[in-house]
Amino acid sequence: MIRPREIAPGVELFPARTPTLPPATHTNSYALGGADVVLVEPATPHDDERAEWLAWARSLVSRGRRLVALIATHHHPDHVGGAAFLSSQLGVPLWAHAATIARLAEPSAPAGAEGAVFERTLSDGDLLDLAGPTPQRWRVLHTPGHAPGHVCLFEETTGSLVAGDMVASAGTILIEPRDGDMAEYLAQLDRLASLGARVALPAHGDPIDAPHALFRHYIAHRLARESKVAAALTGDPSGQSLDALLPTVYADTPPFLWPLARMSLEAHLVKLVREGRARDSGAGWYRSSSS
């Protein structure tokens, strides 16, 4: 693994080991900017990786660049495990969306984010102007669905999109029903597909060329799964449990992945209920008579 790795002028990638979901093992951080620099994803909770991450960040300064901020795309543990420590060590402020900041203020905040102080709230449409030999302007996109405060960053001139956990080139994206929203996620994927981005920089895996095709593939895959969910429902108002539906809807998925698939299944069912295509009996789900 090469790190750091220059992706384009003014964009560096640094993958650090994190407690993320397999098959991914690392979370990518990005340094954006040729003179003024923001570092995206203060991710790792591991001491040895934090030392390497800090050495990378400080090397940017030694090359004449100025660290402006650390940005968390969202509140999940494999994205904020170094937030408080790295911000304190570098003396650089933390920025995130209001919903992310609120989650990290809760008693259940991930380890490594306790006590993190966020000095700027990012909102959809904010512009981050970074000086340099080639100035960069990154637009903040609020893209909930995987997490309520998830943000992406888009540089229109180069077509570069920091995608966080909207897509991945290693593994897939989990939509957890209490933290995520399947309908929002699909809507935001559609929004990202319309940007015309030339490269997506995901939190997990290698940069993605021509990401429009991947965004559309993700949407089609989720809708195909949703069709399986709807087809598996019966009209019996006693309903079917998640565990009863799981083997049918995810027959093409290895059973060792079913605990994760179970969460995605519930997220699809919540969406179907909201759309009036399914009902929740309290003990299980069944097909709506109007669907």
Descriptive report:
The N and C termini lie far apart (50 Å). With 291 residues, the chain is α/β, with parallel strands linked by helices. A hairpin with a 5-residue loop joins strand 8 (127-130) and strand 9 (136-142). The chain contains eight helices and 15 strands. Helix content is 32%, strand content 24%. It is elongated.
Descriptive terms for the model:
7-stranded mixed beta sheet, 8 helices, 15 strands
The chain-level mean pLDDT equals 96
How would you classify the helix and strand content by structural class?
Answer: alpha/beta
Sheet of most strands = 7 strands, mixed
Poorly predicted parts: none
Strand content: 15-25%
Q: Distance between the terminal alpha carbons, to the nearest Å?
A: 50 Å
Spatial sequence of strands, sheet with the most strands: 1-2-3-4-5-6-7
The residue fraction in helices comes out at: 25-40%
Coarse shape: elongated
- The ordered H/E elements are EEEEHEHHEHEEEEEHEEHHHEE
- H/I helix tally: 8
Outline:
This protein is α/β, with parallel strands linked by helices. The chain is 32% helix and 24% strand. It has helices spanning 47-62, 77-80, 83-90, 98-104, 182-193, 211-232, 242-249, 258-274; strands spanning 5-8, 11-17, 26-32, 36-40, 66-71, 94-97, 118-122, 127-130, 136-142, 151-155, 160-164, 199-202, 208-209, 278-280, 285-287.
